[in-house]
Write a structure and sequence with these properties.
By secondary structure, the chain is an alpha/beta fold. Helix content is 47%, strand content 11%.
Length: 1107
């Protein structure tokens, strides 16, 4: 077989060169990397001196497997195929060399170094933890966004305190003003910056503050347009613009009035160059036609300059690259950054410096880090303070050949890592670098991949001090010739002629089919409705399966596959869904999560409703209405505790069973302070395992593992982090020959038949955000949306509009690359499906949005004849009813342990926050619990730091309490009320002789003192609010608060009720403390803060203890 790129492939395995290989889809880039890896292994003393790096564990495992497969094959006879012979020969030489060296690679495959980039970073950082800053018990967080959010929220909490640094206060105020005093608008942008901090951490600490960060872009755009026009036509265009202005005085041409030729390239020439660019293109960015030159542009009819410009445009008609260059130049904003944005940039630098410190504090407190921090740590270990680190010297001695796959998905930190690992390498020293990738397949911008970095390597052919030899592969071994040619002819022209580094647009690299045409086909079909398109796609899939094909249905987003899934489920067709069905969407998991949320938050009405409708609880809608009638403002536990007479008999039995389980698990010592264990116990006691279909049991186990991981410490630690973790999980795929997946998931795979559905659907809302990030050589620049009052030509608005266009073009460019990935998965047959209304101009075609996959492709989708959507009548009387477990279920014998209540455990008295009007209901009131919890924490802090310290920093403490109320889940409209209540209770305690005496320094004193022991043949855990020792006694004091103020007339009743309710518990704790500190009598008392009374368990009033 004579390959069109045979010489390039031979060059790519030459170890005397540092290679940058550009390998389109189907060109066998992984096979090429394996050949070079085998060639390198045959030259080294140890196999560990050859390292292959990729970006996923799956890809690393594939590289190692393919090397081992080649080595195994090399033990046998040579193949007949010439292409396979080359691989066999290299593997044979490697095998012989390995045997001579005694490596035994086939028995010790782990010596083949195929690593992920994250794994390499972690290994380097761990070797020298002192230099890297990574070591000990630090683990990689599963929730990097959660770390960033905690840092941002913590920083702004600190910035609002009176004792915060002045520069931090100024920066926080400036950015809150710029975003409408909405931290929620600023939070995502700052978190994204933190997650990409390797891109700006160095410029951040540089002293340079360039007021013209886009000068290089202006110069490049001017040079490019001038080059494409040519010297003669560039000068003529400038002269024609000046002549037109002289006769028309059109303001649009004023900036070009003094031109006698194309202006010298300079940022100051941006205005006249933009005028000249505008003469070449329309508002939509297309080249003007001669007929478009008119008075509105400043060119008067009958004038010679008007005729000459028309001639010039005719000569350059259909030069797409010229239109792209003119558009790029015209869109650039003024060179000088507006003063308002310069001020915001300075404040942003302050914020980012503080954010870095805050992030590391968060990481240290949690014992977690993220991959970005590990990457930065590896860089620091290699070159501490710019020198030569031990890690670099060690790697330099070990590493002889470095191979990197998927280079189009690299980030800034990864490029820097490669440059440092190869620092000091020289031509001819026996070491080599091999980089391979395809810019057309860069589709992971959301994972920080930046295709512009790969484009720069291709353009400059330089990495650090190494000169790269660029080789271009063109042979496609995957697809039928008809498919390859169709993609070249129809998708290729949709890519730009030249790359754009500002927006990440790449050029198209056509392929040459290695396989002859053998019946391959490409077909585009349009339908009137999503259901009709889905039915056609399923029919096509079934026909391909009947032929014995491997078949995949691909879509841009998971939601775009829903119509196909609906049809498949209705027909009962088996399929395998890869990362499509959200774990939380499975009924068994959804009910379990609702149970968790309900038990965690008594006021979470939505999740209580979902849970009560679960089959293992089984309340009907009628029963739920009866429970809620006249009591909608009650929390659900209170409704269940007092079922109304109108409840059905079945409903009454189900509520009774549920309430018994809730009460028993609340009292049981194993579950009272362990939310995850309680959820499992409740689920088992109510028969949850018997409601789980066999195909969902593994997913339920995964859900429980997730709940336990996020409930360490007894409760749900971070609800937002838990939600993100749930959203990231998908149901395990079932078995089936038909595979459904997103295009992102299909990258690297191939199938006989590929069906792309949802081609008329767009990805997401394209509205303008309130904040944009512009990457500059001077670091990141956040640009908030300008005030509406600013005119269209205001510099601030022009900078924002420019940045918005860049982001939009970058999204469209990645969508184009995503389409390329989809179309190049097919080996033989490719079909695309779109649905929508008929195109008014061409009724025989479906109209597709310009930003959908079909719109990006720019090809017609013929409308299927007769494909008209029909309404379907639904018999509501036969609507399916939700399944319910019988009242007396027969449990399955599946070996799962069932919950049984055991001995009760006493809780701390203060865990019940009292409300004088309704003691029972308020125990489940999150608002009251939060008030009580934060009051207790405040009293503990005062006891540790002193009353004067609290009073001196009261405002700062108030801000911290406000933030804590938000984190505890208090609704925003109640936060201020709750904060006022907490501060009122604290102030009342500090103004009271009783409160001051309880908090006074003592020789021995404890707050929130944990004790445990046997009392009355029962094991008791206790947390004492305040205990201390005086000259003649030990004191145990339990704080009692109310969530709302009480009338003075209600004080006596409230004190009596609370005292009686908690009397026995306090007596037990008195005995427990006496056993732990014998020798002195124990005085126990309740401190009722609202009425300011210190009362014994028997009701006797006590004076303040002496101090």
């Amino acid at each position: 077989m004579n390959l069109a790129d045979a010489q390039a492939r031979e060059r790519a395995v030459d170890l005397d060169c540092h290679i940058l290989a550009v390998a389109p889809a189907g060109s066998g880039k992984t096979g090429l990397l394996v050949q070079r890896l085998l060639a390198a292994l045959a030259t080294v003393a140890q196999p560990e001196q050859v390292v292959a790096i990729t970006f996923t564990n799956k890809a690393a495992a594939e590289i190692r497997a393919r090397v081992l497969e080649a080595l195994h094959a090399a033990r046998g006879p040579a193949p007949d195929n010439a292409f396979e012979q080359a691989l066999w020969s290299r593997a044979r030489r490697t095998l012989q060399h390995a045997e001579q060296q005694g490596w035994d690679l086939l028995q010790q495959p782990a010596r083949i170094q195929a690593l992920t980039i994250d794994g390499l970073n972690a290994a380097i950082a761990a070797e020298l933890p002192l230099f890297s800053g990574i070591g000990g018990q630090t683990r990689i967080s599963d929730d990097a966004r959660g770390l960033a959010e905690a840092a941002v929220e913590g920083l702004f909490d600190r910035a609002l305190q009176a004792d915060a640094p002045a520069d931090l206060q100024s920066a926080a105020r400036a950015w809150l003003r710029a975003t409408g005093n909405r931290l929620d608008r600023l939070l995502p942008a700052l978190c994204a910056l933190l997650e990409r901090r390797e891109q700006w951490i160095d410029p951040l600490f540089a002293a340079h503050d360039d007021p013209r960060p886009l000068d290089a872009d202006h110069l490049a755009a001017q040079h490019r347009l001038h080059s494409l026009l040519g010297v003669r036509d560039s000068d003529q265009l400038a002269q024609l613009a000046a002549a037109a202005f002289a006769h028309s005085s059109a303001p649009e041409l004023a900036a070009a009035a003094d031109l006698s030729g194309w202006p010298a390239a300079a940022p100051s020439a941006s205005a006249p160059c933009a005028v000249l660019a505008h003469l070449l293109i329309t508002a939509e960015g297309q080249l003007r036609k001669p007929g478009g030159i008119n008075r509105r542009l400043g060119f008067l009819p009958g004038r010679p300059e008007t005729a000459q410009l028309k001639t010039l445009l005719a000569e350059h008609a259909d030069q797409r690259a010229l239109a792209e260059a003119a558009l790029q130049l015209r869109e650039l904003p003024p060179p000088t950054l507006p003063s308002a944005l310069r001020d915001l940039r300075r404040e942003l630098r302050v914020l980012l410096r503080h954010l870095l410190a805050e992030l590391r504090l968060v990481m240290g407190a949690r014992g977690e880090t993220d991959f970005t921090e590990v990457a930065l740590a590896a860089l620091n270990a290699l070159r501490p303070e710019g020198g030569y680190g031990e890690a670099l010297l060690k790697r330099d001695a070990q590493l002889r050949h470095l191979l990197v796959d998927e280079m189009q998905d690299t980030s800034e930190a990864q490029i820097r890592l490669l440059a440092q690992l190869t620092h000091g390498w020289q031509d001819g020293d026996g070491r080599s670098l091999f980089l391979v990738g395809d810019p057309q397949q860069s589709i992971y911008a959301f994972r920080k991949a930046d295709v512009r970095l790969f484009q720069q390597l291709i353009e400059h052919r330089q990495l650090g001090g190494l000169t790269l030899h660029c080789v271009q592969l063109v042979t496609n071994f995957r697809a039928d010739a008809a498919v390859v040619q169709w993609v070249n002819d129809h998708l290729g022209p949709r890519f730009p002629d030249t790359p754009r580094t500002d927006s990440g647009e790449v050029a198209f690299n056509p392929s040459v089919a290695a396989r002859p045409a053998a019946g391959g086909s490409v077909q585009l079909d349009g339908y009137a409705s999503a259901e009709a398109a889905a039915q056609a796609a399923v029919a096509a899939a079934q026909a391909a399966l009947d032929r014995g094909d491997t078949v995949a249905v691909l879509a841009r987003g998971r939601a775009h596959l829903s119509p196909v899934l609906t049809v498949l489920r209705r027909l009962g067709t088996p399929y395998s869904c890869v990362d499509i069905d959200a774990l939380a969407a499975l009924p068994a998991v959804r009910d379990l999560l609702a149970c968790l949320r309900a038990l965690w938050h008594a006021d979470d009405g939505l999740h209580w409703l979902l849970w009560l409708r679960a089959p293992w609880v089984g309340l009907s809608w009628t029963d739920l209405v009866a429970l809620s009638a006249g009591r909608r403002d009650w929390p659900w536990p209170a409704r269940l505790a007092s079922p109304p007479e109108t409840l059905s008999e079945a409903g009454r039995q189900r509520v009774a069973r549920l309430w018994d389980v809730l009460t028993e698990t609340q009292r049981d010592g194993r579950f009272a302070e362990d939310l995850a264990a309680r959820v499992r116990a409740v689920w088992q006691a109510l028969g949850g395992p018997d409601c789980v279909p066999d195909d969902q049991r593994a997913d339920v186990r995964r859900c429980f593992a997730l709940i336990e991981a996020h409930c360490r410490g007894g409760s749900l630690r971070d609800a937002a982090a838990f939600d993100r973790a749930v959203e990231a999980l998908y149901a395990q795929p079932a078995s089936g020959r038909l595979q459904l997946m997103t295009i992102h998931r299909a990258k690297g795979l191939e199938f006989d038949t590929v069906l792309v559905v949802g081609c008329a659907r767009t990805s997401r809302n394209e509205d303008r955000p309130l904040l944009h990030t512009l990457e500059t050589g001077d670091g990141p620049l956040l640009i908030p949306a300008p005030p509406d009052a600013l005119p269209a030509d205001d510099p601030w608005r022009r900078w924002f509009d420019y940045t918005h266009r860049l982001h939009r073009r970058a999204r469209e460019a990645e969508a184009m690359r995503l389409l390329y990935v989809a179309l190049t998965r097919a080996r033989r047959d490719l079909r695309l499906f779109a649905h929508g209304e008929a195109d008014p101009d061409q009724p025989e075609q479906v109209k597709v949005p310009s930003r959908s996959l079909g719109g990006l492709l720019g090809q017609p989708f013929p409308r299927e004849a007769g494909a008209v959507a029909h309404a379907t009548e639904v018999d509501l009387s036969r609507a399916p009813r939700a399944p319910r477990l019988p009242l007396t279920p027969v449990t399955a014998d599946d070996g799962q342990p069932r919950f049984r209540p055991r001995e009760q455990r006493q809780l701390r008295p203060s865990e019940g926050v009292l409300e004088g009007r309704n003691l029972e209901a308020m125990e489940d009131d999150l608002y009251a619990q939060s008030v009580g919890t934060l009051f207790h924490q405040s009293m503990e802090r005062i006891a540790l730091t002193g009353i004067e310290d609290w009073q001196r920093h009261r405002d700062a403490r108030a801000q911290s309490l406000r933030s804590a109320l938000f984190r505890l889940g208090i609704s925003p409209d109640r936060v201020s009320t709750a904060l006022d209540r907490i501060l009122t209770l604290v102030d009342r305690s500090l103004d009271s002789p009783i409160g001051r005496a309880l908090l006074a320094p003592r020789p021995w004193a404890r707050s929130e003192y944990a004790l445990a022991g046997i009392h009355g043949e029962r094991w008791v855990n206790a947390v004492l609010d305040r205990c201390f020792e005086t000259e003649d006694a030990l004191w145990v004091v339990d704080y009692k608060t109310t969530a709302h103020p009480l009338e003075a007339a209600a004080h006596a009743l409230y004190v009596d009720q609370a005292r009686q309710r908690y009397r026995d518990q306090l007596v037990r704790y008195t005995a427990l403390l006496a056993a732990h500190r014998p020798g002195k009598p124990v005085i126990s008392a309740f401190y009722f803060v609202e009425p300011d009374r210190l009362v014994t368990a028997d009701g006797a009033a006590l004076p303040p203890p002496a101090y």
